[in-house]
Amino acid sequence: MSERSGGRSERSGGRSVLEERYRRWLRLLPASYRAEREEEMVSAFMEGAQPGRIGNDDQRPRFLEIASVAALALRLRLGGPGSPPGSYLWGEAVRRAALLGLVFWTVIAGLYAGQAVLTYGIPVDALPDGVMGIGDPGSPDRMRLVLADLTPLLWVAALGALVRGRARTAKAAAIAALVVPYALVPPFTLGWESAVRWACSALPAVVTVLALAIGFHRDAPPPRLPARRALLLLVLPIAVGLLLSLVVGVLGAATRAGTISERLLIPVWMWVDTTGLACVALLAVAVWCAIRRRTPGRPVAPVALAAAILTVPVALARATTWPLGVADATRLAATLQLAVLVASGITLVVVGVRALRTADGGLTEVRGQPG
Amino acid sequence: MTEPAFLVLTALVDEPRHGYGIAQEVERLSEGRVQLKIGTLYGVLDRLAADGFVEADREEVRQGRLRRYYRLTDEGARALEEEAVRLADNARRAVDRLRLRQAGGLA
């Protein structure tokens, strides 16, 4: 009975199983924080524990308790201004991954919106060869498909909210941008293999939303940019997207006219789909980071690490949508893209890590971080 | 100031308390509406300590477990008072307007 009331057994050197379980979850917290707080946190957990049939040994930490520790761990490990340099750097890397991701998806939103205008005839017959979209004009199908092409504009709303300092709105808009297109046009999957392919192709957007969700928190709110700068951050990627939609339109016309040889058709299109464009964008960031790595006063480490984070889901998306049983040129394009992604990823990690080492504790030089 | 931070400061007004004691007092003060989980509580305590509103008071070992007590600082008391006055003003304005509405003044 005394064991029940005291909530302790002789297991684990006098610690109850429940205590051991709490300590295991507390390992999510940074070691320095644990050294300071673990004992009092365990004490608080154990005081609030309800003894079960055999004391605390048949009890488990409750879900909300674990969630609160996980949330605290994320806030500590992805710190805001004033946090220890290492945690601040990783926080900045994740926040910039969210920003870079949102800028990319804003480009894609511009591309899709431009394509919707061209494809669905607004104005009518905009394309030189009069191509029309799927579904009869005015039909529910047509409406659904046009909406699906326009929903990526929710990414623009997310980016707009973020650069104006509204993290919650940005997160809500980004989640909607991720989910709504699939609600309008459910993914077509045949068996688990195609389901895995679909899931991996969705990963780059999922990682952007995750980075946004965990990177910006109460201790690291997004800065509110001046209206003009914020507008520029929105207009530029949309303009790039619209230009890309023209390129895609021309490519589409050339394809239909048979100007591009059948052998090169898929390889060419592979560079203007989402994965191909992400590949080019990450290469551009890697080159930018490599060039700017020695520029004083503007540390590239957070940007390099942010882009390295984003490279992983894009490489996975490319690898799992590997073209099988197709022409050599298509496989070559896929191999080239994967090689570009791997090379960019390695470059970004090397630049990021070297920038950190060169700074030698100069992480405090990262802008916004008080020394 | 968030509601959990406000309640944690309020819980420390009368005496220093340790982690679980604060969580219990917050639950009592909010009549069971706010149940601070330990991870959340320590996040709030970290922020309040960083702002200088609370500080460690003493440590005790009870039944082999560490209890660290926290107390309200003068700065914390001032911040709490300002926030309480602000909230009370808002509540008073709301009540005044509701009375006017009931009396047909704003209808």
Q: What do you see in this structure?
A:
The complex is a heterodimer of chains A (371) and B (107). Chain A is mostly helical. Chain A is built from 15 helices and no strands. Among the domains of chain A are: 91-244, no CATH class; 257-359, no CATH class. The longest helix of chain A has 35 residues, at 85-119. Chain B has one domain (3-102): Arc Repressor Mutant, subunit A, CATH 1.10.10.10. Chain B has helices at residues 3-11, 19-29, 38-50, 74-102; strands spanning 17-18, 54-62, 65-72. The longest helix of chain B has 29 residues, at 74-102. Chain B is elongated, with a radius of gyration of 17 Å. The A-B interface holds A 6, 14, 37, 39-48, 64-65, 67-73, 75, 82, 218-219 and B 2, 18-20, 23, 37-43, 47, 50, 62-68.
State the shape of chain A: globular
Q: Class by helix and strand content of chain A? A: mainly alpha
CA-to-CA gap between the ends of chain B?
33 Å
How many domains, in number, for the residues of chain B? 1
Structural class of chain B: alpha+beta
Keywords (chain A): Membrane, Transmembrane, Transmembrane helix
Transmembrane segments (chain A): 97-122, 142-163, 170-189, 195-218, 230-254, 266-291, 303-320, 332-353
Protein name (chain B): PadR family transcriptional regulator
InterPro entries (chain B): Metal_resp_DNA-bind_regulator, Tscrpt_reg_PadR_N, WH-like_DNA-bd_sf, WH_DNA-bd_sf
